[in-house]
Amino acid sequence: MSAAREAKKELKELRESMKKVEPFFEPMGKPEAYDWLGSNNEPGQTFEQYLDSDPTKPTKERQTIYVLPLGTFTPQQNKIIDASVGYLAAFYDLKVEKLAARELRAVWPNVRQNKFTRTHQIKTGHILNDILKPMLPADAAALIAFTVDDLYPDDSKSYVFGQASLESRVGVWSLARLDDNADYSKFLRRTLKIAAHETGHMFSMWHCTKYECLMSGTNHLGETDRRPIDACPECMAKIAWISDITPKDRYKKLADFCQKNGLASDATEFTKKMNAVAGN
Ligand SMILES: [Zn+2]
Ligand SMILES: [Zn+2]
Q: Is 142 in contact with 66 (CB distance < 8 Å)?
């Protein structure tokens, strides 16, 4: 088969898989008070729009996601970072490598004290532009840093969970707020969602508005908790397409990861989706 026909067949199969996993996802509802879509008017991005957008994707030369711990972490936080490394590997079917931890010492004007919570915060732009961009390895599909410090993008916002650059392949997210009122498994699930979400931005994926999706924007932890740990049909097709993996093999890897990491009900969901797309 010619390469062009091969590619066409792959897209046809992906579109069929999308239909088969639709029943597992909720269409995006009306935003509740303080939800992301209540204050952000976003167009969304279907699989077809993504294909037309010439997205940044892993290439033959760029097959590794690097994870950089910035700062000093507790054993529980380290365990969660290690789990995120495993989840990203399954989610994007790429090699994920954890780099040695580095200290994070930022000073004014790259830091501030939050007006309301009085917490020390670091500006995301500083981490992205001054720390991550200069150290981006040539074979990096993406370089993502974790911090324990709280983050802010600019003075218009009280805080952000994380931020990524769509073109530069660098991103950062913070664990600072993710253990609020959370047991280990809630803390873990929140971190995995944000890790996969921010990495999606690095592969030029926009916020999802079609379904309650891991790639939908979130404004607060309630919204993060409500969202699935998985990408909706549209976003799943984008990931399978850029990673060159079948949806079935991908769901299998995700189910295995969840099984090994104490997320039994997530493992069951991924197994159901794997069975739904079997044959494609
Ligand atoms: Zn986002
Ligand atoms: Zn989506």
A: yes
Read off the pLDDT of residues 46-74 as tens digits, 9 standing for 90 and up: 999 999 998 888 888 899 999 999 999 99
Domains and CATH numbers, the chain: 12-54+228-280 (no CATH), 56-204 (3.40.390.10)
Which ligand is in closest contact with the Cα of 217? 1
**Which 3 state secondary structure label does DSSP give 101?**
coil
Is pLDDT of 1 > 80? no
User: Whole-number mean pLDDT of the chain?
Assistant: 93
DSSP string, 30-98: PPPTT-HHHH-------HHHHHHT------SS--EEEEEEES---HHHHHHHHHHHHHHHHHHTSEEEE
User: Is the torsion defined by CA of 34, 36, 40, 43 positive or negative?
Assistant: negative
Output the pTM of the full model.
0.92
Strand, coil or helix: 21: helix
Distance 19 CA to ligand 2 centre (A): 13
Cα 273 to ligand 2 centre (Å): 15
Name the residue with higher pLDDT: 30 or 25: 25
Q: Is the pLDDT confidence value at 271 over 70?
A: yes
Q: H or E stretch including 18?
A: helix 3-21
Among all bound ligands, the one having the nearest atom to the CA of 21 is 2
3-state secondary structure of 249: helix
Integer angstrom CA distances of residue 29 from 51, 140, 226: 26, 36, 12
Q: 6 alpha carbon to ligand 1 midpoint, in Å?
A: 32
pLDDT value of residue 243: 92
